[in-house]
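ugh ok fine here u go
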Amino acid sequence: QVQLVESGGGAAQPGGSLRLSCATSGFTFTSYFMSWVRQAPGKGLEWVSDINSRGGTTYYADSVNGRFTISRDNARNTLYLQMNSLKPDDTAVYYCARNADIVRYDYWGQGTQVTVSS
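structure:
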């Protein structure tokens, strides 16, 4: 069975950093683009970033570009999101998601909460 398990969330102050991880199993990790998506309280889903199967190509939402870095370790079947210069608007539940194709996700993790406040 496909499993995606996020971890690394928590509380941070503005300007701080967190590193999120998504441990995956049950599928050939190296065959899939992967994404991070977030949902702020009372808001809809917002795409954050994605990465191609080999890790050489990345994409970022304008809201996080220059502050967040997506990466993957294909040997460990793990996806990462390094978040620097955190802002209160980054407060959200962060999900990792597998890309079934360029525009659709077919599996999601349970999410990990990130709270940025002073």
